[in-house]
Write a structure and sequence with these properties.
Strands 4-5-8-7-6 form a 5-stranded antiparallel sheet. The chain is α+β, with helices and mostly antiparallel strands. The chain is 50% helix and 13% strand. The chain contains 9 helices and 8 strands. The protein is elongated, with a radius of gyration of 22 Å. It has 2 domains: 152 residues, 3-Layer(aba) Sandwich (Rossmann fold), CATH 3.40.50; 67 residues, no CATH class. Helix 3 packs across helix 7.
Length: 247
């Protein structure tokens, strides 16, 4: 259908086939789409990718993540500018401030009929249930929810700036790892801890695991995360790779 519309408008179009891995269908499908798009950009020498995420998507994302207990970074939702996952190529969302209904009116004015994706109303998916609940709650202001996500994105940027400064001033190389002398509030220190784990262990840790390590170190107790051991020492919190035992 999209190919036919693009052909009628004289717009270049490509249809990309993807393989969706088992598991969380929507999450795996999203990952497969972005992987295919990144490969397409590389192949055709494209400089940026634009998606059609809109204000209703943003409001749904905020409510979904509130329900999951997400932190500031998660509650900030999708951003107007970012990077295609797994690459440094720009990802743009030019209609993030528009409502779904407004975009439908634009499409209708062009003489086109919007396609209704069946998965958008499939109650097996959390987002579909949130979407239905949001539609019934007339007292909720979708535009205001989307604006709140934008404000949280500003807060997230401020925390990230503070975390980078904390890293530069309070993290030092040690013979077997890194030492951190925390000075900032908990929200900033958690980001520094996550960066330490990523740098030493090579994988991004879950937020709950980082919080557990932080609480243990504040209580002067040792803790482990991934392949690392963390200890509270007089000179600061030390993070070293765990010693591999020989069989």
């Amino acid at each position: 259908m999209v190919a036919r519309v693009c052909a009628g408008l004289g717009v270049s179009h490509a249809t990309l086939a993807v393989k969706v891995e088992p598991g969380n269908v929507q999450a795996e499908a999203r990952a497969a789409r972005y992987t295919a798009l990144a490969q397409w950009m590389e192949r055709d020498g494209l400089d940026a990718l634009a998606t059609a995420h809109h204000a209703d998507d943003q409001a749904e994302t905020l409510l979904l993540r509130l329900n999951r207990g997400s932190g500031v970074a998660g509650l900030a939702g999708v951003r107007g500018r970012g990077h295609v996952p797994g690459t440094r190529r720009p990802l743009l969302r030019p209609v993030l401030g528009w409502r779904r209904s407004e975009l439908a009116e634009v499409v209708s004015a062009m003489g086109l009929t919007p396609v209704a994706d069946p998965s958008n109303t499939d109650d097996r998916f959390d987002r579909a249930r949130i979407r239905k609940a949001l539609a019934k709650a007339e007292w909720l202001d979708v535009a205001a929810l989307a604006a709140s996500a934008a404000h949280l994105a500003d807060a997230d940027a401020a925390l990230e700036w503070a975390a980078q400064r904390e890293w530069a001033e309070c993290v030092e190389r040690a013979p077997l790892g890194l030492t951190y002398r925390p000075q900032a509030p908990r929200a900033v220190a958690l980001r520094v801890l996550a960066r330490i784990v990523t740098e030493l262990d090579g994988t991004a840790p879950r937020g709950s695991a980082v919080a557990r390590v932080f609480d243990a170190l504040v209580a002067r107790q040792p803790a482990s995360i991934g392949g690392l051991v963390a200890r509270a020492l007089p000179e600061g919190w030390s993070f070293n790779r765990a010693t591999q035992r020989r069989a």
